[in-house]
Amino acid sequence: MNVKPTSSDRERVEQAVRNCYSTWGERYYDEYYKSDAAYPPVHTDIVRTLLQNAGARTLLDAGCGPASMLRDLVDLGLNLYGFDLTPEMITEARRVLSVHGIASDRIWTGSVLERSSFLGAPDGQKDYDAGICFGVLPHVRDGSDATVIGNFMTVVRPGGLVAIEARNELFSLFTLNRYSSGLFKNRLIDSDGLLAAAGDERDALERALDDLDKRFRMDLPPVRKGYAEEPGYDEVLSRTHNPFEMRALAESLGLVDVRVLFYHFHALPPMFESAVPKLFRRASIAMEDPEDWRGHFLASAFILVGRVQ
Ligand SMILES: C[S@@+](CC[C@H](N)C(=O)[O-])C[C@H]1O[C@@H](n2cnc3c(N)ncnc32)[C@H](O)[C@@H]1O
């Protein structure tokens, strides 16, 4: 059920997210975009192609973090703008972009849930050719996705491009771990309805539902903790999204030419990566094809792409 969150819910979530990311400002890009340990940032190339095909000249990155994506797109010669919830991310983004001659006021503090944040450009820029949003949707509460898409639609010009990334809920069917159990029990099986209808089979059904978890590695994946006292990624709200539902939502809000592009493919369920790490990485990268239907299950992320009418 999509219940619109209250402002105090929102403030609580945003404060936890700010805490989580407060220690990542200087480290984030090195760890997630440049490290050999991390999967290569294949999404940057997808965005680059989308921007080039759209002929974009101005770009707003909502939830830009330490300008991780923006710094890698500098060579396109776009007018770049961005905002983020976490002050430490903004400090780092300004520092990095200043090296490329981008004024610090092109990057500001704000929330994707606040329309005024999308209007924060110092020069009053508000008819962007393109708006992107990566790594942010997991951190907004259920019921707020439409607000984020709607906010983009007020600042991206008619015909302009919107590209919003989300974690793929359906990937949980492939992981065979705790996430799979969650998908089965919370999204696929109507546990309450079945229990109510079970009659004298209720005890047997309860045992069957317990038994289901034995099919999955419930100890995986490990919970990601913070570096110090702050909460880690899995300790703050970090939702996954359903690509079918997101596509329908975008269309219902009036975006056109809506597509779902998948990335970060997994050639095997991730629990097997440690057995064949080099092959796993090589084969997964080779599978990257944003339009491959297998992405619905093998890719851990997707980009919801559409145009404003
Ligand atoms: C996983 S990082 C991604 C950063 C960058 N977009 C990238 O792709 O590398 C998530 C970022 O979203 C920001 N964020 C989370 N909730 C937000 C919100 N409601 N409004 C704006 N930014 C938000 C965090 O501060 C953090 O910098």
From TrEMBL:
<dbReference type="InterPro" id="IPR029063">
    <property type="entry name" value="SAM-dependent_MTases_sf"/>
</dbReference>
<dbReference type="Pfam" id="PF13649">
    <property type="entry name" value="Methyltransf_25"/>
</dbReference>
<protein>
    <recommendedName>
        <fullName>Methyltransferase domain-containing protein</fullName>
    </recommendedName>
</protein>
<feature type="domain" description="Methyltransferase">
    <location>
        <begin position="60"/>
        <end position="160"/>
    </location>
</feature>
<dbReference type="InterPro" id="IPR041698">
    <property type="entry name" value="Methyltransf_25"/>
</dbReference>
